[in-house]
Every structure is written in structure tokens, then in C-alpha cells.
Amino acid sequence: MILAIESSCDDSSIALLSIESCKILFHQKISQDLSHTRYGGVVPEIASRLHSANLPRILQNLAQNFALSDIKAIAVTNEPGLSVSLLEGVMMAKALALCLKIPLIAVNHLHGHIYSLFLGKNARFPATILLLSGGHSLILQADSHTQVRIIASTLDDSFGEAFDKVAKMLGLGYPGGKIVENLAKKATQKNLTFPIPLRNKRLAFSFSGLKNAVRLKIEALGEETARAQSAEICYAFQKAAIAHITQKMQLYFAQNQTPKYFGIVGGASANKALRGELEALAQKFDKTILFAPLKFCSDNAAMIGRCGIESYKIRDFTPPHALNISPQSTRF
Ligand code: KG4
Ligand code: ZN
């Protein structure tokens, strides 16, 4: 078994996976949404303190049902993420690896998201991966476990972050993704539109202009009217944001020889309207679309463990004293 720890942002999570079958034997996650919601975003100091209480709680639950002595390696997220959050998981991983005298595996959080597609199954490479989360919007080319290239990224905000900021502007709480998606479904008037970002041939994402357009609209309407029309605003924002993603993926597929597999990962990949548009695009370009189970789209330790299994197979270990965090990492 491999034990995995994820604490890169505001979710404390630990999982245990079978190295042979890649199946999840144990998984628990304690989210901190309620503690951050009134700030409209994650407060690192609060996140760190909660990880230091929640990670041991989860480990205790795990130890009640599994013998720690059966664990062959510890996988832990060490990059990218909030430094004070990453450190909590990394310190626990180091202590466990030293006490149990087993290897330590450093896992890149974004690399982990790719493996949310392959829980309990074999990895399917090569694949084009669209990663949409709170911190990243990336098109990736994943040729194998060790060969992942960034094809396109965002010039400013990420897709999930834009949802969070729109929710904050409308006073809807945090995280905004699910709230905005649900509210958009309630829109009755659908004539409001926002401009689709970067309608040119540049292979990149940008959400700050769209976010600004929403802000200007809210200001023009006045707070009270804007809140009364929040379903319509959410609908129009989501439509433009998804159209932007779809147009850029279309551009990439039309101009390049790309693999058969097209995987969508990251917390925002849970968005049903987005999934629908990308499914239609995949059909047009004859791609096999891959989604993670909804439960494992957002941050979780199971995907970190699944990624760690591949590193375990090639003995990609890091000694505890050499394992460092890299909060801003952009490599794979
Ligand atoms: O991958 P994730 O759990 O954490 C990061 O690594 O960032 O992604 C969280 C992000 C948040 O910005 C959240 O608002 C967004 O994903 N998100 C969504 C949806 N569910 C979560 N965005 C749009 N639609 C959703 N249904
Ligand atoms: Zn994530």
C-alpha cells in the first residue's frame, strides 16, 4: 500500500491505495470551506492551523483500520500551493517515512490532478489534458508519467478563480464555482452577455477582462439590482468563460496533431455546463474524453497516491532531508 497526503490549499486529505490494483483502500478529506467563506478566499494562516489539527485526525482514523507497518511508501504534495499549507503535509510525511523506514515520494499537485482520471485503473497516455482549478488553467500534453509539457496557460486569473471572484462580487460566498454554476441554472432572462476573452489566434487563457466586465456591470446596476439579477449575471459570466475555454481547445485541436485521449481535470472540471461543451468538442475532433469521478475533481489525496504509485514503480524517491516545498512551481 502507498499512503498519500494532500494539504496544498484548504483541503486536508489522506488516502491509502493498493500499489498493485491502484484502487483506493481508504480516503478521507476534511474541507475548510466554512472557515474561509466569510473572507471570500483562503486565508493561509487559518488553512495551516486547520491542517495541523485535521491531518492527525484523519491519520488516526486510518490507523484504526490499517496497519501502518504494511505501508511501502509515503507520497506527499510538495508543490505548487500555499507554503504554510504544503509544509503541514510535508512534515507529517517526513515523520512517517522516517519512523516507518520507508521511501518518500514528492508529488506535484498538478501532476496529481492528471491521475484523478486513473483511480483504480491503468493510466492512458499520451493524452491532452485540460486542467482547470482555482490556481491554474492549463492545456498539457502528457506523453508518459515523466513527460508532461505545458502547451498553454493563463495570462492572469484562472478559470476557477474567476468563478470565486464573481461569487465574491455578488456576495455569494466561497468557493464560488458550484454556487455560480447552480445559480446560473436559475436564470430566466438570458439576454445579458459578456465579451468572450482573447478572441484571436493566441493559445492562452485570460479571465481578468471578463471578471472586470462583470464588476462594471454590477457597478452599473447598483448592488441591490445586481443581487436581484445574480442568476442572470452568473449565467452570462459562465457562458462567456466556458466559450473561451472551448474556443481555445478548438484552436489547439484544429492546428495540431493531438492524441486520442482528452482528459479534463481540476476542481472546476466538475462544472456540468463545461463538461457538456467539451463533450461536443471531443466528438467533433474524434477524441475519447476522460473525466474524473465528481468526488475526485477537487483536491484529494487519492489522486496524489495514484500519481505516487507510478513514481514508486520507477523508484523516484526523495530522502526526507532533501524534500522541500516549492509553492510557485511551474514544472512537472
Ligand atoms: O482543484 P481545486 O479543488 O483546488 C485547486 O487546486 O485550486 O479547484 C478549486 C477551484 C475553485 O476555484 C472552485 O471555485 C472551482 O475549482 N470549482 C468550480 C466548480 N467547482 C469547483 N468552478 C466552476 N464550476 C464548478 N462547478
Ligand atoms: Zn487542485
List strands and helices in order, with pairings.
Elements: E1 2-6, E2 11-17, E3 24-31, H1 33-36, H2 44-65, E4 73-79, H3 83-100, E5 104-108, H4 109-114, E6 127-132, E7 137-142, E8 148-152, H5 159-169, H6 176-184, H7 208-221, H8 223-228, H9 230-255, E9 261-265, H10 272-284, E10 288-291, H11 301-313
Parallel strand pairs: 1-4, 4-5, 6-9, 9-10
Antiparallel strand pairs: 1-2, 2-3, 6-7, 7-8
Helix pairs in contact: 2-3, 5-6, 5-7, 5-9, 6-9, 9-10
Bound molecules: 5'-O-[(R)-(carboxyoxy)(hydroxy)phosphoryl]adenosine (KG4) and zinc ion.
Let me know the largest β-sheet: 5 strands, mixed
Q: Give the N-terminus to C-terminus distance in angstroms.
A: 24 Å
Q: Please state the CA-atom Rg, rounded to the nearest Å.
A: 20 Å
Number of strands: 10
SSE topology string: EEEHHEHEHEEEHHHHHEHEH
The ligands bound in this entry are: 5'-O-[(R)-(carboxyoxy)(hydroxy)phosphoryl]adenosine, zinc ion
Mean pLDDT: 97
From the spread of the alpha carbons, the general shape counts as globular
Helix count? 11
Helix content: 40-55%
**Beta-strand content:** 15-25%
Question: pLDDT under 50 segments (min length 5)?
Answer: none
Spatial strand arrangement across the major sheet: 3-2-1-4-5
Helix/strand structural class: alpha/beta
